[in-house]
Amino acid sequence: MAEHIDPTQTDTVHITRWQRLDPPAEGKAVTFTYIEKIDVDYELPEHAYEGFLIRFNGNLHAYRNSCPHMGSPLDWLPGRFFSEEGNQLVCHTHDARFNPADGACISGPCPNGLSELPLRSDGHTVEVPSALNER
Ligand code: FES
Question: Is 36 within a domain?
């Protein structure tokens, strides 16, 4: 089954390089790093960020590993993003809960949802950004 494919060029995100990952099993996550340059018009420096790729209900989703509450990584234990029940993503800093399917804030101190990252997959392989610019 082909996953949804976000466009590589949008009004706000321009993917300059992709990296291939081994897709995670259902209810699991893999982390990756990528370089992001925010607002290319002002020539701000690039920074390395961490993202994570999950499989939930058979679908792949990629998010920035930064909680919208205070910017902490969600996983205290590397790679542990899901709740015990497996139906929510958890920020272990203050227990914010997110919907794995769209990153929306469900409960806790999160003011909004997770930032989703583009991915592309043909059903066998998956690629996530290794470098992107945001405008
Ligand atoms: S930093 Fe994630 S809930 Fe506070």
Answer: yes
Residue 88 lies in a domain: no
For residue 49, pLDDT beyond 50: yes
More confident residue, 107 or 36: 107
Ligand 1 touching residue 97 (CB < 6 A): no
Tell me the CB-side half-sphere exposure of residue 99, using CA atoms within 13 A: 8
Tell me the CA–centroid distance for residue 108 and ligand 1, in Å. 8
Three-state SS at 134: strand
Model pLDDT, residue 133? 83
Ligand 1 centroid vs 67 CA: distance in angstroms? 6
- How many other CB atoms are found less than 10 A from the CB of residue 55? 19
Q: To which residue do tokens 């990252």 refer?
A: 117
Range of the domain at 50: 13-79+116-134
Evaluate whether residue 39 is within a structural domain.
yes
Distance 6 CA to ligand 1 centre (A): 27
User: pLDDT of 93-135, one tens digit each?
Assistant: 999 999 999 999 999 999 999 999 999 998 889 999 999 887 6
> Does the residue 8 lie in any domain?
no
